[in-house]
């Protein structure tokens, strides 16, 4: 054997130990090494059996989020909003500009594995970025405002073929114009039986501020009639809605907020409150003025999960007929139902007998199942006015 001084120097082992020592001393180098390993996923590697196998490709790494100033400029709004302005109406703008907030929202929306996901109001695309971090098979962003298209198109270029950006009004889905049809938005989405518990797709996002009420009713109409996004199966909807409107959806029978919105929603969907977010986490920030406005959660946003019911009890799933009846019966909540039912036509009192509903109840005391029974009796009633419109009505003002 050779003496220690004559042993051959092992150069590869030397560089391996040097690199290991550098990684231990510098966390930054370790992170870059991990990113390099992620980027090399999808390359051909040699397995233990000697065969070459291809690992699944990793999603492309997205560039950093644009500067906050650029995102705020794209919204075209001031950096804060007062309580008085919020109280004046719900049509004031609201955006998600923080990536950590978007990640938290998406983490509460369940699994996206292999699903088509539609961001219903992406704005500058911060929530869309969080959707791209999931294992969704297809991410679709439908934005009505042209001011955000440049940011969304740039994101689509960086994200690759998983992201599809469309300009259009999601409220007008499947109409002649205004929004791409469901066949385009949900391309390659497998259809599931309505009785199946498998979710074919998801609708996610902040409900559009302008026309938000019409948007919610549009979703309910499509859900109840099993059209559009719900023609593929029981598509779930995760929507961020203002607290004051959410309470109209969640209102129980007998409460002051119980009305047309609650009865229509609860008749066709199971509603769950997933989380309540402070209004100050969104942009523009909520600025409290003085001591006049107390922290009541009035301006908070609720993340609601709407799951279509397997059975609604409606004849031929006629959700438009149910809404027609509810619109007529909400003429005034102070009257009893035997007086309100006259709004459906002469001799409509017979509908209460057929539906087995007591006439001395007030509107707020009539259950959802009783409204469904009245609707079924009305649809089969020979005395129904021929001029009774059963199509989708306009919603320029908030009901109830």
Q: Main traits of this protein?
A:
alpha/beta; elongated; 400 residues; 15 helices; two-stranded antiparallel ribbon; disordered C terminus; 14% strand; seven-stranded mixed β-sheet
Detail the topology: elements first, then pairings.
Blueprint (H helix, E strand, L loop, with lengths): L10 H15 L1 H13 L4 E3 L5 E3 L13 H8 L4 E3 H6 L10 H9 L8 E4 L6 H7 L5 E6 L5 H11 L3 E5 L14 H4 L15 E6 L5 H14 L10 E7 H8 L9 H9 E9 L7 E3 L13 E8 L10 H11 L7 H4 L9 H6 L12 H12 L21
Parallel strand pairs: 3-10, 4-5, 4-7, 5-6, 7-8
Antiparallel strand pairs: 1-2, 8-11, 9-11
How does this structure look, described?
This protein is of the alpha/beta class. The chain has helices at 11-25, 27-39, 68-75, 83-88, 99-107, 126-132, 149-159, 182-185, 212-225, 243-250, 260-268, 319-329, 337-340, 350-355, 368-379; strands at 44-46, 52-54, 80-82, 116-119, 138-143, 163-167, 201-206, 236-242, 269-277, 285-287, 301-308. The chain has a seven-stranded mixed β-sheet with strand order 6-5-4-7-8-11-9. A hairpin with a 5-residue loop joins strand 1 and strand 2 (52-54). Helix 12 packs across helix 15 (368-379). The radius of gyration is 28 Å and the shape is elongated.
